[in-house]
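Reviewers of the previous submission asked for a worked example of the structure-prediction workflow described in the proposal, so we include one complete record here. The input consisted solely of the amino acid sequence. No template or homolog information was supplied to the procedure at any stage.
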Amino acid sequence: MELFHGPTQSFKDYALQVLGVLADKQLGKIDRKGMALVATSGDTGSAAIHAVKDSENIDIVVLHPYKKISEYQRKQMTTIQSSNVTNFAIKGDYDDCQKLVKSLLSKQMGDKELISLNSINWIRVIAQSSYYVWLSQQIEGPFDVVVPSGNFGNAYSAWFAKNNGIPIENIICSTNTNNVLTRFINTGKLEPFETVSSIAPSMDIQLPSSLERLIYDLFQDPSRTKIFYEELYKNGEASLPKNLIKDLQDTFQSDTFDDTNIKSSMKYISKNYDYIADPHTCTSITLAQKLKNKNPIVAVATASPVKFQGVVNDVFDLQNDNSIKLAESFDIIDNSLEKLIEKIF
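From that input alone, the workflow returned the following structure tokens.
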């Protein structure tokens, strides 16, 4: 299921086109101006910018990890010359960007309403669930989905759809070498490691934000969820009780692809199906083929290979140039809440 036919060639376009309009209209209704704070591991930033770049009521500030996304992804954000768009490259990883956004959202600063266009925002989850509603109209009976997953937002949207009547039986998460989700699903223990760079940078995440929602759903108790995350932040790890591990594994499966696996998967898919998959999508296709469950199984394609032309060129020994040849505008700043506040307020 190709979900990358929106304006920035990412699955996030569909949901953000909805969210951007709704946020703009709501701010207009209450006669307020808003500031959208967005952390991105590569794709959310440009999709969010394109959702609100012509907005009358929203300014947008996007944080991306410095030198840790593809050049094409960066330029999709930093070449948008619009007065309501500001881009920062943070000297850190995606998790650092996300922490900065969450810290700012917990404050009220300046005279604007602070809003999120990340999957922190519940409307993102609802809008992404429509993918799986559509799938249920194409397939008769139960089906499984394989989702390339970093921040767990798309996978959680499938879970939300399943819990609201869509006949999804299994949700399978493919991950890269930052395999915190695979380890959590396979063991019930959430243990973030240091984020490492990979050729599938949109999954270079060790603390998936939307996973909090799943853990809350499993516990069905805010206080136990709070204790779980307090333990995580205190000890660097936290584990589900055995009964909840079973509940988790009744629906979720996961497997990991390192850079070597990703390259070989891209080659195999091209050779056998004459299809070029980006470094993220190739993991879902390969895992779907590997599992061969009794149900129809759908591999979710999350981004166009054009966004990762450098990797495609390297894997297939090409010299294609789809680069964006426009002037960029962004500031490089330290991973510091104080520095960020100083820049935007």
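The chain has a mean pLDDT of 96. We consider this example representative of the routine output the project will generate in years two and three.
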